[in-house]
Design brief:
Elements (H helix, E strand, L loop, with lengths): L36 E4 L6 H5 L3 E9 L2 E8 L2 E6 L5 H13 L4 E10 L9 E10 L17 H18 L3 E9 L7 H9 L4 E3 L2 H11 L2 E11 L4 E2 L6 H24 L1
Parallel strand pairs: 1-4, 1-5, 5-9, 6-7, 7-8
Antiparallel strand pairs: 2-3, 3-4, 5-8, 6-9, 9-10
Length: 265
Amino acid sequence: MPSPSSAAPSGVVDKSEVGVTGVQYHVGVSPGQISNIVLMPGDPFRVQLIAEQLDDPVEVAHKREYRTVNGYYKGRLITACSSGMGCPSTAIGVEELARAGATTFIRVGSTAALQPDIAVGDVIVSEGSLRNDGTTAAYVPAGYPAVPDFALTTALADVGRERAAEHGFALHTGINATDDAFYAETPQWIAKLSALGIANVEMESSAMFVVARQRGLRAGMVCAVSGNLISGDVVYGRPNDRLAVGWEHSIAIALEAAHRSAEAL
């Protein structure tokens, strides 16, 4: 892992100093163009689902996997920006959006359940991530925890329970795993994670949590369950109405939690 305190050799580019202002290289937004609160789905097309729950949505940029839309929730400006799949693109997105003024990040996406009582369409709020990725190793040593902001996570869980009681779905909280290689997750690996009590597995949150901690930002995650890898209830590659409803719930939870936690600051 590179040492941040090491002096850069003469003439070698220091990426921490390059592009801090102006249009961000990958995301394509500038300071003043976005909110301090960003909801981050993985899929660029899912940004539209967030926009549908905002007032006066406007697309700000769409570059590479990063599609950025602004809109208003209860009078507060909110930005939605997709991260793409995996920790590398998530880390870049958080770094550049932070340079443009974002201070709070909420991942709203899909996740696979690893406990038998969690159903497709349920919603899970992360309390921390098992770092089974390569990106965060470039930032922090192996024992460093990937944990979300406590107050933001509490708000997500509180709003989630309220909405679950009102709409009749289940809200879960727990530790998730963040994996790099979707197709390298063997049955043995899945069973091991489940035996450890891991609630779910996805591909982005550890990077979001670690980068946020390193940069003095807030981060949290609320995801809809796309399938259960233990019970075998998976619908990969087919229309999934339960997941679509779960996405709607997770977005609504994220928006209200962001609003409440921002009010509390």
